[in-house]
């Protein structure tokens, strides 16, 4: 990682802390990891990566946005009034707030009821609302936010620069190689740019009874993915495996509730190992290669043979680019992946992450890229 970026990130995090926003050293480390997988030339990409890894709360959004615009991109905007009242940051005419003052301000802020902080909105609250606490009234708004999130993934630029004709970044090395054919005279600059990358995804969704609270929201996200990322294949599983890609790409007005009729034993038991073994036998060779990211949405509460689960995941991991397991139970800080299914899966999973709210799904996006 470029040292200048490390220093810039540390200064930005320090300015946030001086303005009364809680950002830990671990958050900074996570921020660096996220930026390593982000398009640093895309302000929205960088903003989203830092907002997620710094765990910006609704009441701190205006301060974050003001400091991001002023310090990260150097656009010279002053913090909004709410930020100046909460804490004096870098560039304030009275100087930075002392640690005691910042702590006192932070203590006063914690007494503000959730949803009444300056700058809060329904969208911000929905992003952090646990799927278990959502109901049918939240689903339409959640689906709209998930479509936007999926579109971000589908239009994400690759980290790799590729040769292009026309506009793009100048490529001095390739330009000089071309000049050898014209006696060293550079007639036309060679150029490169980061193309839009189309992710190759295989998503395996647990629809057993233990996933009922989160299942419809996770499927709404998967449906949005399948519609914008065309090389996405989706399977539902509980006691057996069912390919649901055609259904998810059906008419926009088709409700998620109708899917339960198409999937046998919906909200029933869980045979994760048998289901993944069926995927390996029927679809692995055709759908998974070294450019494919395989995502499993499941709480890992296996009722079948954990050794079968481990063997199936081992074979999937041997062909896939990476395997990501998203577990809604990880949203609870007390959770430990010690259940039989989860313990058997862990050695063959590249990333185990939570999937209990929209914000946790936002953190997933950089890991779905090539």
Order of helices and strands: HHHHHHHHEEHEEHEEHHHEHEHEH
Domain module tally: 3
> CATH topology of the largest domain, what is it called?
Rossmann fold
Largest sheet: 6 strands, mixed
Please give the CATH architecture of the largest domain.
Answer: 3-Layer(aba) Sandwich
- Note the gap between the termini: 18 Å
Give the DSSP E fraction (strand runs of 2 or more residues): 5-15%
CATH superfamily of the largest domain: von Willebrand factor, type A domain
What is the SS-derived class? alpha/beta
Mean pLDDT: 75
Number of strands: 9
Number of H/I helices: 16
Radius of gyration equals: 23 Å
Give the proportion of residues in helices: 40-55%
Overall 3D form: globular
State the name of the first-level CATH class of the largest domain: Alpha Beta
Low-pLDDT residue spans: 75-120
Order of strands across the widest beta sheet? Answer: 6-5-4-7-8-9
Q: Care to describe what's here?
A:
The longest helix is centred in the middle third of the chain and has 17 residues, at 212-228. The protein folds into three domains: 3-120, no CATH class; 162-193, no CATH class; 200-368, von Willebrand factor, type A domain (Rossmann fold, 3-Layer(aba) Sandwich). It has helices spanning 3-18, 25-36, 43-53, 61-72, 81-86, 99-109, 122-128, 139-154, 172-179, 212-228, 245-248, 259-262, 272-287, 306-319, 340-345, 358-364, and strands at 162-164, 169-170, 191-193, 200-206, 232-237, 241-243, 292-297, 322-327, 351-354. The strands form two sheets. It has a six-stranded mixed β-sheet with strand order 6-5-4-7-8-9. Strands 1-3-2 form a three-stranded antiparallel β-sheet. 45% of the residues lie in helices and 11% in strands. Strand 7 (292-297), helix 14 and strand 8 form a beta-alpha-beta unit. It contains 16 helices and nine strands. Mean pLDDT is 75; it is low at 75-120. The radius of gyration is 23 Å and the shape is globular. It is an alpha/beta fold and 370 residues long.
